[in-house]
Write a structure and sequence with these properties.
By secondary structure, the protein is an alpha+beta fold. It is built from two helices and two strands. Helix content is 23%, strand content 22%. It is globular, with a radius of gyration of 12 Å.
């Protein structure tokens, strides 16, 4: 938020506490990043991601 303001919202979900979300998006490994645009799942990434790669994936 400090760097990109309101362009991006990042949420962290504990799939052990909310297994329905893991099932809905077929999360089978942790960490899994899900990228949404206007409420629609656009892309996903399994594994760690550097800040630089994350910014590139988000088009920032």
């Amino acid at each position: 938020k400090e760097k990109h303001g309101e362009k991006v919202k990042i949420l962290k979900v504990n799939v052990d506490e909310v297994p329905a979300i893991a099932m809905k998006y077929r999360v089978q490994a942790i960490p899994t990043l899900l990228f949404f645009k206007e409420g629609n799942l656009e892309n996903s990434h399994v594994g760690l991601m550097s800040l630089e790669d994350l910014e590139r994936a988000l088009g920032l």
